[in-house]
């Protein structure tokens, strides 16, 4: 994978995953009148499980991405619902990970 392709993949993947998990699923699951903890955990576990056969893969990848997902969900919560910072942080994480694996 070339440096250009790695960068493009990292940017597109981070935007897609944040829109799906932090914006889409979280908004669908989050009750409007209760604590955020249950939806933070549910969305993070789903995000982790979606990486079982991805990068990083296996159960180590599931745990690592679930923890990363929890951090991104908490970041979105702290940013009052905005996913812009989550997309940026996720893109940087993808670029670092993909750079270590493929470049």
From TrEMBL:
It holds the Pfam family Rce1-like. Keywords: Membrane, Transmembrane, Transmembrane helix. Residues 11-96 form the CAAX prenyl protease 2/Lysostaphin resistance protein A-like domain. InterPro entries: Rce1/LyrA-like_dom (IPR003675). The keyword Glycosyltransferase does not apply. One of its GO terms (molecular function) is endopeptidase activity. The chain crosses the membrane at residues 59-75, 82-102. GO terms for biological process: CAAX-box protein maturation. The keyword Transmembrane helix applies. It comes from the Bacteria. This is CAAX prenyl protease 2/Lysostaphin resistance protein A-like domain-containing protein. The lineage of its organism: Bacteria, Bacillati, Actinomycetota, Actinomycetes, Micrococcales.
